[in-house]
Amino acid sequence: MVETVLKKHPQTGDLPVEMLSVGQARAELAWLASALGSANTAYHRDDAPNLSDADYDALKQRNTAIEERFPQIKRTDSPSDVVGGEISEGFGKVRHAVRMLSLGNAFSDADVFAFDAGIRKYLGLDATAPLTYTAEPKIDGLSLSLRYEGGKLVQAATRGDGSIGENVTANALTVSDVPQVITGAPEILEVRGEVYMSHSDFANLNKRQVEKGGKTFANPRNAAAGSLRQLDAEITKARPLKFFAYAWGDHSAPLAQTQSAAIEHLSALGFSTNKLTVKCDGPDAMITQYSKIGEQRADLGYDIDGVVYKVDDLALQARLGFRSTTPRWAIAHKFPAELAWTVLEDIDIQVGRTGALSPVARLRPVTVGGVVVSNATLHNEDYIKGLDGNGAPIRGGKDIRIGDWVQVYRAGDVIPKVADVDLARRPDDSVVYEFPQQCPECHSDAIREEGDAVRRCSGGIICPAQAVEKLKHFVSRAAFDIEGLGAKQVEQFYTDGWIATPADIFTLRTRFGEGLQQLKNREGWGDKSASSLFDAIDDKRRIGLARLIFSLGIRHVGENSAALLANHYTSWAAFEAAMTAATFDTGPEWDDLISIDGVGDVMATSVVTTFHQDAERASIDRLVAELDVQDAKVMVSDSPVAGKTVVFTGTLERMTRAEAKARAEALGAKVSGSVSAKTDILVAGPGAGSKAKKAADLGVQKMDEDDWLALIGAL
To answer: Which DSSP state fits 629?
Structure first.
C-alpha cells in the first residue's frame, strides 16, 4: 500500500478557500505548485505515487478553487495548466495531434447547476432553452489514446503532460478490449478512453504477486497504470487490463453530430463503451442519473469516482471550446466525501502575510476517507461561535470549544472542515473559546473591520509573520524568482537580520562583500554558492513591469491583475505617477484606473492606498532604485484593432459578451469596461445607454455589432 500523508501549507492549509486572503492564497498556490509537481512526477514518470488518489484529487481541487476565487494571482506554473506529468525516459515520445485534457470537477448539486448556468451564459441561452447533456461513469484508470490509420492500430500513447505522451503501442496491443483492426471508420481516427482493471482481476493479481514475492498494488488504478507502462510488453500481456472508449481526438471525418451518437458509433466499430451512459435534459436529470450510478457503484465491479457530464451537441462543444487544460463543455461530478468524529484537542491561531488571524483545529488523529486527519479548518471567529457571515446561527447556534467531539468533513479541499459538534459529549468543565484580540506573533492589536469576516494584525511591517510572508512572495516564481533564494533562505536571512524589505536583497553584496562571510560560515554555503547567489540577484535587477507590480504583494493584485495594469500603463514611470496622483473615487487618474477591464473599486483602492502609505511607498522607492524596470511589451499585430481600446455595451445578438471580449483580445485589442477619452471604438448593441451618450460626447467611433464583425473579418 502507498503510505498516505496528509499535506497542507504550513500556515494557510487549514483555512477553507472562502476564508483565504489574497496573500494567503498566493502563498498556498506556490506551495501547491511544488507539491502537485512532485506528485505528478512520482506517479506519471516514476510509477511510485507519494500521494493517494484522493489526496491528489483534493490537492488539485484545492488549487483550482483558490484560482477560481483569486484569478488575478494564478501562477505561470499553475498545476491547473498541467495535464498529467513528465513522461518516463524509458518510452518513446508521442506528440498528440489534439491535446489530451483533464476535466474540471463538481462536488455538489449546486456545482452542477452552476456548470449548466455557465454554459448557457456563454452561449447566450436562457434557462428555458433546450440543452441536452450526456452522463457517464467516470472510470478511475489511466487515459489512453489509440490512433488508427486505414482501420489499423498504428500507435497508442498515454496522456503524458497532455501534449506529449509515452508510446505504449506494443503494450496496448496486448489489451483484449483494444481492437487491432476496425472497419467502417474514418481514414484517420484517434480513439480515447480509459485503461482499467476490475476488482476481481485486481485481487487475483495481488494474490499472484504475493505468491511469487513481487510488488503488490495499492488499488486497481495504480495496478492498471503500472501494468500498461511496463517496458516489457510480455508483463503487460500477463495483466488483466480492460479498456472503455469514451472520446476521440484527431479524425479525418466526423463520427456523428452528437456525443451520444458518436459513442454509439465507437461501439459499432468494436470498442467497449459504458452502457450506463445516458442523455439528460438539464441538470435535474443529470443529478438523477448521478444518484442512480452512485447506488450501483458498489456492484459495478470496477472503480469509478464520479459521473462525467458533457454537452451532447458537438457543434456546441466546438463553440464552447477549451480553457487551458479543461473543456468548457464537460465536468466531472465527484462522489461525496466521508465523515468522522474525533476530539478537538486545541485551537491554534496562524497569521498570514496580510495579517489575517486564522483558527486551526488540532484534532485527535482520525481516519477520514482513507486519510489520517489531525488538523481541520475552523474558518473564523464567527464560525467558532456558531454564526455565519451575516450573524445568523449555523449548526443550530452551537459554538465550538476545546475538548468537544466534532464531526470532520473531508471533500474536495485537501484540508478537512469541522462540520458539527456533539453537545451530548461536551465535557462539564468546557469553556467558551475567546478569540484573541492581539496578534500572537507581534502582540499588536488584532482588528476586525466592519464587513470583514477576518480579524487582522495591525502591526504591518513590524509583524514578523507579515514581513516574512511578504518577502517570500517577493521571491516567488511568478515574481522575482531569484535562483537560490527561496522561501527557506528568505526566512533564514530575515531571522539573521540580513534582510527586512525587498530592497535589502539587492544590497546584500554591497553590505556584506563578495564573500558574505556570515553566509559562507553556514552549512551548505561556500565561496562559490555565495557568489552564485549574488550573481542570481543581480540577474534579476532587470525585471518586467508586470512581474514588479505583482511582486509588491499589493492586496487584491495577482498575476493577471498585474498584467492588466502593466499593459495599460506600459512603464513604471507612468504607473507610479498615475498612482501617486490618484485620489480615491474621483479625478482623471482614478477614472482611468477603474476603466481597465478587470479592475474594480476594491482593487483600485488597494493599489492607490499602497502608494499613499509612507512606509510602503518608501520601501517601493528604495526597491525600484535598485532595478532596471522594463516597459510592458505592446502586442504587435496586423489586426485592424490591435492596440485599440474597445468598449462593448448594450445587448450583443450574434455572440455573448464573453465571446466578444475573448475575440477582441486575441486580435490585440484592449477591452475596457467604461468609456473614456482613451476609448477608440464603442461597439453598441440594442439597449446601449449612458456609454453611447458619453462616447458621442467624446467623439469616440461608434459601430454596431455587424460593423464590428466586418472590421475584424468575422462576417
So the answer is: E
Start-to-end Cα distance in the chain: 59
Q: Check: CB of residue 255 under 8 Å from CB of residue 273.
A: no
**SS (HEC) of 31-48:** HHHHHHHHHHHHHHHCCC
133-139/304-311 β-pairing: antiparallel
Q: Is 138 a catalytic residue?
A: yes
Sheet holding 104-106, edge to edge: 104-106, 330-334, 304-311, 133-139, 278-280
Q: Give the C-alpha separation, 300 to 307, whole Å.
A: 13
Main-chain dihedrals φ then ψ at residue 99, nearest 5 degrees: -55, 145
Residue listed under C-alpha cell 468537544: 404
Cβ partners under 8 Å of residue 340, min gap 6:
366, 367, 368, 373, 407, 408
> Residue 306: is it exposed, middle or buried by C-beta count within 10 angstroms (0-12/13-18/19+)?
buried
24 closest CA partner among 348, 349, 499, 355: 355
What does the radius of gyration of the chain's CA atoms come to, in whole angstroms? 28
User: Which residue type, as a one-letter code, is found at position 617?
Assistant: R
Contacts of 277 (CB under 8 A, 6+ apart): 134, 135, 136, 137, 246, 260, 263
pLDDT in tens, 40-77: 777 656 556 676 656 777 788 788 889 888 988 988 88
**Active site residue: 7, 8, 60, 138, which one?**
138
Q: Which domains are assigned to the chain?
A: 93-334 (3.30.470.30), 544-630 (1.10.150.20), 645-711 (3.40.50.10190)
The whole model's pTM is what?
Answer: 0.49
pLDDT of 180 strictly over 90: yes
Paired with 308 in beta bridges are 136, 332
Helix (H, G, I), strand (E, B) or coil at 92: coil
Share of the chain above pLDDT 90, in %: 44
